[in-house]
């Protein structure tokens, strides 16, 4: 079984490294290119992006009583932003939009989780 617990942190670290390198490096030092290339290998790693509309805890008997047409009230207000998760880690919040008859999500807020402290662990 694959351990994906740090995959979201790695993706965040790669994005932050490229952003920080582009912002903080002086032209001609080569540091920005070096840092960006170092994390570029992460770009092709597949991750699971999911959007959580809401959640509720139910007893098994309540779930067994559900039938077609039943409504389950979720623990979130209709006006609240939805959670955008990458591999189960909250990375942003957004709102539902429709694009050509399909659902989409507009990112309204990106969650900052201090990527500077993220450690990348190598496994043999």
Automatic annotation (TrEMBL):
Membrane-topology annotation of the record: Peripheral membrane protein
InterPro entries recorded: FliN, FliN-like_C, FliN/MopA/SpaO, FliN_T3SS_HrcQb, SpoA-like_sf
Keyword terms: Bacterial flagellum, Cell membrane, Chemotaxis, Flagellar rotation, Membrane
Pfam families noted in UniProt: FliMN_C
Function: FliN is one of three proteins (FliG, FliN, FliM) that form the rotor-mounted switch complex (C ring), located at the base of the basal body. This complex interacts with the CheY and CheZ chemotaxis proteins, in addition to contacting components of the motor that determine the direction of flagellar rotation.
Limits of the Flagellar motor switch protein FliN-like C-terminal domain: 42-111
Family: Belongs to the FliN/MopA/SpaO family.
Superkingdom per UniProt: Bacteria
Tagged with keyword Acyltransferase: no
Gene3D superfamilies for the chain: SpoA-like
Subcellular location: Cell membrane; Bacterial flagellum basal body
Keyword Membrane set for record: yes
Protein name: Flagellar motor switch protein FliN
């Amino acid at each position: 079984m694959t351990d994906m617990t740090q995959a979201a942190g790695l993706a965040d670290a790669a994005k932050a490294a490229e952003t920080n390198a582009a912002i903080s490096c002086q032209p001609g030092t080569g540091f920005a290119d070096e840092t960006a290339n170092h994390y570029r290998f992460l770009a092709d790693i597949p991750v699971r992006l999911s959007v959580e509309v809401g959640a509720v805890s139910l007893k098994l008997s309540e779930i067994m009583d559900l039938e077609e047409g039943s409504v389950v009230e979720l623990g979130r207000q209709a006006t609240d932003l939805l959670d955008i998760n990458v591999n189960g880690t909250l990375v942003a919040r957004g709102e539902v939009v429709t694009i050509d008859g399909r659902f989409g999500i507009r990112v309204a807020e990106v969650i900052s989780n201090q990527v500077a402290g993220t450690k990348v662990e190598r496994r043999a």
